[in-house]
Amino acid sequence: MTRPEFDAAVRKICAAFVFPEPEDATLQAWHQVAGHMPLPASAWVVNEFIRRTARMTRGTNLGYELNALYEEYKKEQQAERFRATSGKPQEGCPDCTRGLPGWIRVLVHAHGSEGEYIQLFRCACNTDPRFQRFAAWTRDRISNFPHMEVLP
User: Fold this and answer.
1) How far apart are CA 143 and CA 46, in angstroms?
2) Which of 22, 84, 100, 125 has the fewest Cβ atoms within 10 angstroms?
3) What pLDDT is recorded for position 89?
């Protein structure tokens, strides 16, 4: 964000809180801290600062506050991109457990006195990047193991 754009954002904040505009040296210091954010992000950051802040005092370090909100904005944008690009399980996959898309419920007959327990396996149709560390399974592959039984 250029200095004039940053100054305009600060003027908008000051107007919202009926606060006098800071001196040029203060604006320069704040710009050094928070002026690196892109213009599209600055609109969100300024509006969020106005929405969240009850009042602005002379001790408010606007450069720090705007920079902290920009970091939050980046994390939110990253999460939004992740949600948009994460793989969705196939609808109607024959391997998935009904009502649990992307997963296969399996009854495991444990050895000895451990008994039985239910375990979830990632279905091969589940391409969500959060679960890539788990091996992908199909009903056919699970049926090769005599101590495992796929549940409906």
Assistant:
1) 57
2) 84
3) 67
